[in-house]
Amino acid sequence: MTNIGIAITGSGSATPKVSLNNQQLSQIVETSDEWIGTRTGIRNRRLADTTESLCTLATKASLAAIAQANITSADIDLIILATSTPDDLFGTASQIQAELGAQKAVAFDMTAACSGFVFGLVTGAQFIRTGVYQNVLLIGADVLSRWVDWGDRSTCVLFGDGAGAVVLQASEQDRLFGFELRSDGSQNNCLNLSYQPQAKQIIEGVTVSQGTYQPITMNGKEVYRFAVQKVPEVIEKALFKANMSTEKIDWLLLHQANQRILDSVASRLKIPLEKVISNLGNYGNTSAASIPIALDEAVREGKVKPGDIIAASGFGAGLTWGAAIFEWGISKINN
């Protein structure tokens, strides 16, 4: 066999036990359920407490995806963790590898913020297409509540915590039909979780920077403008590479940031709203986790079926954005 493709054969997700709805948020900042709901579509979000970590959520989501793919942790060759909020700045993927018992898997973190899952999908696919690995576990997970300023109404209403995972496997036919990835660092200041340096003199004449990360800041209007302009464009480019039209798409699966963005992108692409997967009302913006959580829910509800064509797009801090066109649930190569 000369050509090796990929198939996405399993999905899983996990969200924290604790929830915070809009009415409860109105006790923290000056807002209301109506104000948040009409502007974002978000009604509730899940927040990790001190008993939960990125690792625990990601491990739970991964086990569900591995089981659905009908393999075991021992079969996993590579683990890619897309996150901006690791438990350990040196990386959390290896901790997940240990928790799963995936002893032969190499594991690493990658950061592309809310685009992380799409960037990770494309990255994992290359390892399979080159014949290096056969089974790749891709996780999108974030615990953004760690870095939210709960006194900032413009950001605290938006974010939630969670993890989603998929299994990518070698396939005789390639089911990742096309993709497009983009970055624009000149707009980095629109959405930040920045390190704030603080000078510390360790000896006379030698000063180092020992600060900490500051809460999330965002220019909401600029991010909205960026998303509604760039996301339809990048999906169209991915469709062109896939030699497909929007009529071939069964589902539009966007990063779950804002319902108005989802509606606007669908409108610009002339995709009916009934083909748009949306669950941000229950979870808020979970960054790299949002696409795989929404996918897993749709699969387990029976909405997304094997053979369905999905146009997925992530967009966010960096600024980064990307799209991938793939088919859900085709069986792997039999070895």
TrEMBL record:
One of its GO terms (cellular component) is cytoplasm. The active site is at C114, H255, N285. InterPro entries: ACP_syn_III_C, ACP_syn_III_N, FabH, Thiolase-like. Its EC number is 2.3.1.180. It is an enzyme of class 2 (transferase). Residues 240-328 form the Beta-ketoacyl-[acyl-carrier-protein] synthase III C-terminal domain. Pathway: Lipid metabolism; fatty acid biosynthesis. The last Arg residue of the ACP-binding site is essential for the weak association between ACP/AcpP and FabH. Catalyzes the condensation reaction of fatty acid synthesis by the addition to an acyl acceptor of two carbons from malonyl-ACP. Catalyzes the first condensation reaction which initiates fatty acid synthesis and may therefore play a role in governing the total rate of fatty acid production. Possesses both acetoacetyl-ACP synthase and acetyl transacylase activities. Its substrate specificity determines the biosynthesis of branched-chain and/or straight-chain of fatty acids. PANTHER family: 3-OXOACYL-[ACYL-CARRIER-PROTEIN] SYNTHASE, BETA-KETOACYL-[ACYL-CARRIER-PROTEIN] SYNTHASE III, CHLOROPLASTIC. This is Beta-ketoacyl-[acyl-carrier-protein] synthase III. It comes from Okeania hirsuta. The gene is fabH.
